[in-house]
């Protein structure tokens, strides 16, 4: 009986394979990085603990801030589901993957130097120094300048989640066509050159907008205006999708995903806003209540408008309206009361809905998931209305607004909004132009195939 001999490829022939060599090179590179970083840890010995007075730590405040950080972390993959349900079925994996990618990139950037640039020692009102590089000195002791009853490390990780979700919001403006490697570089550069400076201006001790008296409790300017107008710049530079039609409707592949994403965002937003009180306090309760109320009012506003426009109350419109209400109440949540939050929700609902119609029907800009209308203009509306409805009686660290005898606060809000809009748009535009030679978008063939298979090799649905 004849036997058939099978030959196994030798190790030498396997190494001759370019793909194998490429893989081995990356294994070795990552191993070296791990060794170098591991050795560098000796230079930071004890910096994550440090000397501290245990009596200065309030366990309730610390628990609330840690839970709030976890809630805000949940919002980033929730953005992936919210956006992922809106795109075509051949791009759902790529959108969710991009949100997870950003969670990874910015987490590391924040620990290395992002936190220090925002909350380090002020340099001319423009940026923090690198005194907290690698979280050196960020340990168990509170930082009295920001939160005097919790470890500075808890404050750091809570703020990290804001830095993470902000670039994740931008991806909705260029879904279905962005090149993956370019996105990686863009996120690193944008977080460092756009988010970190704006966050320092508004929240950092010594930041010039903070010194001016601008009010932004949880990120209306820092997060939403910056992301919204960065998204507008990105949509212009990256260009339209193949087959884009002005005024056309989204070919949403999974409406339940959209509703799930919106519900998770609503849930996580309590950590976003109420957590920004940085204590389990009455102010946190107020922020929680007005956050829920504004979201509800805006959701109902969008539902009514979609009903009036299309003769059917859209589920996606209702969910999107809730998110727009959450955006608008964010800067005001620590300064306004429940009735004012209803007004903010209704006004923001009108503004964002009409801005979406304006962008879609009157321009050729393909801001695919309307990041500019929802986050940019929602954030602008909320920041300006903070200057109208703010009450010092609610937050003694804030100020009164126009309706409570201080019209100057509205003017301060106008300045903060204008500066954030211009800086975020212009720097994002320049960054993307610089990255253009690397290729901003995938090839026409890859776009036609869909990024799920063309870029990631993973299909979202196997029907």
UniProtKB/TrEMBL annotation:
Main location: membrane
Pfam families: Ammonium_transp (PF00909)
Record-annotated Ammonium transporter AmtB-like domain positions: 63-461
Location within or outside the cell: Cell membrane; Membrane
GO cellular component: plasma membrane
Keywords: Ammonia transport, Membrane, Transmembrane, Transmembrane helix, Transport
Membrane topology value: Multi-pass membrane protein
Transmembrane feature ranges: 21-44, 64-88, 100-120, 153-175, 182-203, 215-238, 250-272, 284-308, 315-333, 339-358, 370-390, 410-432
Highest taxon listed in the record's lineage: Bacteria
GO molecular function list: ammonium channel activity
InterPro entries to which the protein is assigned, alphabetical: Ammonium/urea_transptr, Ammonium_transpt, Ammonium_transpt_CS, NH4_transpt_AmtB-like_dom
Record family assignment: Belongs to the ammonia transporter channel (TC 1.A.11.2) family.
Name of the protein in question: Ammonium transporter
């Amino acid at each position: 009986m004849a036997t058939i001999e099978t030959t196994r490829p030798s190790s030498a022939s396997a190494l001759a394979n370019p793909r194998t060599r490429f893989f081995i090179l990356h294994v070795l590179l990552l191993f070296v990085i791990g060794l170098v970083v591991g050795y560098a840890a000796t230079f930071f010995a004890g910096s994550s603990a440090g000397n501290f007075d245990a009596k200065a730590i309030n366990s309730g405040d610390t628990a609330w801030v840690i839970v709030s950080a976890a809630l805000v972390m949940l919002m980033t993959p929730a953005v992936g589901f919210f956006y992922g349900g809106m795109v075509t079925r051949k791009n759902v994996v790529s959108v969710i993957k991009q949100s997870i990618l950003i969670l990874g990139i910015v987490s590391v950037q924040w620990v290395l130097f992002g936190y220090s640039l925002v909350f380090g020692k002020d340099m001319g009102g423009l940026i923090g120094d690198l005194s907290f590089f690698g979280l050196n000195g960020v340990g168990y002791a509170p930082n009295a300048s920001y939160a005097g009853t919790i470890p500075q490390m808890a404050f750091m990780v809570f703020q990290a989640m804001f830095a993470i979700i902000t670039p994740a919001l931008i991806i909705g403006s260029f879904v279905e066509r962005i090149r993956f490697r370019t996105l990686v570089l863009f996120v690193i550069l944008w977080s460092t050159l756009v988010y970190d400076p704006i966050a320092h201006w508004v929240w950092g001790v010594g930041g010039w907008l903070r010194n001016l008296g601008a009010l932004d409790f949880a990120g209306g300017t820092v997060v939403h205006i910056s992301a919204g107008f960065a998204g507008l710049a990105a949509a212009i530079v990256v260009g339209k999708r193949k087959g884009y039609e002005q005024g056309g409707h989204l070919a949403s592949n999974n409406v339940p995903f959209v509703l799930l994403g919106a519900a998770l965002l609503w849930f996580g937003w309590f950590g976003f806003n109420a957590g920004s009180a940085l204590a389990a306090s009455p102010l946190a309760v107020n922020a929680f209540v007005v956050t829920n109320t504004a979201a509800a009012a805006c959701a109902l506003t969008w539902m009514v408008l979609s009903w009036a426009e299309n003769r059917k109350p859209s589920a996606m419109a209702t969910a999107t309206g809730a998110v727009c209400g959450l955006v608008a109440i964010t800067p005001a949540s620590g300064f306004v009361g429940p009735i004012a939050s209803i007004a903010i929700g209704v006004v923001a609902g009108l503004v964002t809905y009409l801005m979406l119609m304006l962008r879609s029907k009157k321009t050729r800009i393909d801001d695919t998931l309307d990041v500019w209308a929802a986050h940019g203009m929602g954030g602008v509306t909320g920041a300006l209305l903070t200057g109208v409805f703010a009450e010092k009686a609610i937050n003694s660290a804030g100020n009164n607004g126009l309706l409570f005898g201080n019209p100057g606060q509205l003017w301060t809000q106008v300045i903060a909004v204008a500066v954030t809009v211009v800086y975020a748009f212009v720097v994002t535009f320049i960054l993307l132009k610089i990255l253009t030679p690397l290729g901003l978008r995938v090839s026409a063939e890859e776009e036609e195939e869909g990024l799920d298979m063309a870029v990631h090799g993973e299909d979202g649905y196997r029907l």
